[in-house]
UniProtKB/TrEMBL annotation:
Pathway involvement of the protein, from the record: Cofactor biosynthesis; thiamine diphosphate biosynthesis
E.C. numbers: 3.5.99.2
Protein name stated in the entry: Aminopyrimidine aminohydrolase
Keyword Hydrolase: yes
Purpose of the protein: Catalyzes an amino-pyrimidine hydrolysis reaction at the C5' of the pyrimidine moiety of thiamine compounds, a reaction that is part of a thiamine salvage pathway.
Substrates-to-products reaction catalysed: thiamine + H2O = 5-(2-hydroxyethyl)-4-methylthiazole + 4-amino-5-hydroxymethyl-2-methylpyrimidine + H(+); 4-amino-5-aminomethyl-2-methylpyrimidine + H2O = 4-amino-5-hydroxymethyl-2-methylpyrimidine + NH4(+)
Organism: Actinopolyspora mortivallis
Gene name of the encoded protein: tenA
Length: 244
């Protein structure tokens, strides 16, 4: 069952940020990767490339969440962010492991897929935000990974209906279920609360961070669709495959 989120407070930051990126959010749902995933026609090599990049991305995402948890003023916010950091590594890695087994992926095969320029750029942006951005700006940068995935997952589930025989059904259900929707609502509530207490300059920086990470979400799916390579690799044949 798909869990559509309630609309955010129309006067809050999240509503403004979503309106600001509305066309981009539609483009993400319509991206060929997500269209093929929804139809069950996505080629194995593209999904495998995505899984490998996502498993590496999650390390940086979890580190940024942990950094946010350490800077939270309220104990319940620190608990939410720390729990989200753990979940990013534990639950989603379990999902990846299931698909790795299903596709018969070996450690040697995954190690041969280099971290893409987009994956490295996105994780570097989040790590840099955790180190140098104000706490509200960091939280705004983390929000798209929650919200965009839930939006994509719930939209696809509404389109496909029963996923029992769908080759990517478990992925769809993970991001469309009630538990993940609850986490997204928690992230939205925290972001709105921080924005309401922030000055205008900080709110603008929050919006910039939300937009940038929404752009990275599109780029991430596009990099999987294109199986993005480093254009400089032709001149560096002996570079390690997973080097960052």
């Amino acid at each position: 069952m798909s869990h559509r989120l309630p609309e955010p407070d129309p006067d809050g930051f999240c509503a403004e940020a979503w309106r600001h990126t509305a066309e981009l959010q539609r483009a993400i749902v319509r991206h060929p990767f997500n269209r093929a995933l929804a139809e069950g026609t996505l080629q194995r090599d593209r999904f495998v490339f995505y899984l490998v990049q996502d498993s590496r991305y999650l390390v940086g995402f979890a580190q940024a969440l942990a950094g946010a948890a350490a800077r939270a003023d309220e104990p319940e916010d620190a608990e939410f962010l720390a729990r989200s950091a753990h979940g990013a590594l534990a639950e989603e890695r379990a999902l990846h492991a299931g698909y790795f087994e299903r596709f018969g992926l070996t450690e040697r095969e995954t190690a041969g897929i280099e971290t893409s320029p987009t994956c490295l750029a996105y994780t570097s942006y989040l790590r840099a935000s955790a180190q140098s951005s104000p706490y509200p700006v960091l939280v705004a940068a983390l929000l798209p990974c929650f919200w965009v995935y839930q939006h994509v997952g719930s939209t696809i589930l509404e389109e496909t209906g029963d996923t029992a025989e769908h080759p990517y059904g478990r992925w769809i259900e993970t991001y469309a279920d009630e538990e993940f929707a609850t986490a997204v609502l928690g992230a939205r509530e925290l972001t709105d609360r921080l924005a309401s207490a922030a000055d205008e300059r900080t709110r603008q920086r929050m919006l910039t961070a939300f937009v940038r990470c929404s752009e990275y979400e599109w780029l991430f799916w596009n990099s999987a669709w294109e199986r993005e390579q480093w254009p400089t690799a032709r001149w560096l044949p002996h570079r390690g495959a997973t080097a960052e």
